[in-house]
Amino acid sequence: MKKGLLTGFIALSLLLTACSTGNQANQDKMQEDKETTMEDKMNTMKSEEKVGQSSDEMAEAMASKKMNQGDLAPDFDLPDLDGNRYKLSDQQGKKVYVKYWASWCPICLAGLSELDELSKNTEEYEIVTVVSPGHNGEKSKEDFIKWFESLNYKNIKVLMDESGQFIEDYGVRSTPTNAIVGSDGVLVKVAPGQLNKETLDQIYAEVK
């Protein structure tokens, strides 16, 4: 009888010990999972903080490089008549003169010869022009290219703004419109009307 009771007690003790060990293992695993989750959250927060710091640092770096007063010029990435892409933000380090014009504009047409000569000889600033086929009374892309090539101007770079986004971004209200961009990418000025070589040279002499 005593032997049976002893055997039963030992078996019960083993069972309780096994349950206790299992519960402890489960508790240990839960604690480990909790610590892992907390560690993952901390790592995520640190990563997000680093990304935020990087963005702020980039913004500060760009601001510190600004030499002209104003905001950065709205970027554009447009094809020329041959399909080659021209992206304004890639031109940082150069002063850029952007002229918006149209094939139906008499003032624009009267200034093309001077613009062609200026594009050929000017080294102080880069010159690009923008037209918007299908917008504001402009010809279609195909008709414009055919028409412009017949004029035989070899030095004028014409970019095609088929979406009309340039008109919106630069607030074009009249034709021609001129955008003066500094070497730091800042949009120094947007001015309507025809600008001749003398005026442009005076403007860019003051632009950094």
UniProtKB/TrEMBL annotation:
Residues 29-51 have a biased composition (Basic and acidic residues). It holds the Pfam family Redoxin. Gene3D superfamilies: Glutaredoxin. Residues 23-54 are annotated as: Disordered. InterPro entries: Redoxin (IPR013740), Thioredoxin-like_sf (IPR036249), Thioredoxin_domain (IPR013766), Thioredoxin_ResA/DsbE_sf (IPR050553). Residues 1-25 form the signal peptide. PROSITE patterns: PROKAR_LIPOPROTEIN (PS51257), THIOREDOXIN_2 (PS51352). It comes from the Bacteria. Keywords: Signal. Residues 67-208 form the Thioredoxin domain. The keyword Signal applies. One of its GO terms (molecular function) is oxidoreductase activity. The keyword S-adenosyl-L-methionine does not apply. This is Thioredoxin domain-containing protein. It comes from Facklamia languida CCUG 37842.
